[in-house]
Amino acid sequence: MVVHHVNPGTWSDSNIYLIVGGRTVLIDTGTGDDNRRNIARIKDLLKGRGLDMIILTHFHFDHIGGLRGIVDEFGSEAFAGAGDAPFIIRGDPAYVLPNLYGRDIGPVDVAELTDGDIIDLGEHRLRVIDTPGHTCGGICLYDEVTNSLFSGDTVFGNGVGRTDLPSGSARELVRSLKRLSGIDVRTLYPGHMEIVSDGNRAIKYGLSMMGGV
Ligand SMILES: [Zn+2]
What we know:
- By secondary structure, this protein is of the alpha/beta class.
- The protein has a single domain, classed as Metallo-beta-lactamase, Chain A (4-Layer Sandwich).
- The chain has helices spanning 35-46, 61-64, 67-74, 85-90, 93-96, 170-180, 199-209; strands at 2-5, 17-20, 24-27, 53-56, 77-81, 111-113, 118-120, 125-130, 139-143, 148-152, 155-156, 159-160, 188-190.
- The longest helix has 12 residues, at 35-46.
- It is globular.
- The protein starts with a strand and ends with a helix.
- The structure holds zinc ion.
- Residues 58, 60, 134, 153, 161 line the site of zinc ion.
- The site of zinc ion (ZN) has 5 residues, from loops.
């Protein structure tokens, strides 16, 4: 399994990761502001293969704004956590918050993932972990083979996601971080900023920031 960092993620645009293994999976799509460039890069990295699936870590616009254009380009099926999926399907601006980026959002079809679902990539398997707190239905994806975690905005290399946006909950976030602290995470692929190699430390730090330990 190779993980490509498609774009230079910032605080205002999410990281986009492309996993190339037995299957090809894109994790998050960014705001879409750089969709043309991102799609060209994804095509380059796929080397003629298709894009099998797109997984959204949560419903915020900076993670799903690029979804429509990427689905139109590759025809891939998109997935999100069962708690967040309805907001994406409806294109609910009160939760997706496109206005923070000066944009609109329309409805996009996504299928639901639930806690414990396994996404089989051939030699690797991604396990879906429900991690509410930043949003009500955010998810992380854990690969037990490489001990890698795609953490969305639940936890970053140096902090945690905010809990003051609609459907956020500090109490839920602490519970989710506690759950993550029970698994062995080496490489952490967060929804924003740098990838870090000591995920366990990042989770512990995030939990301490929240007063959870
Ligand atoms: Zn977010």
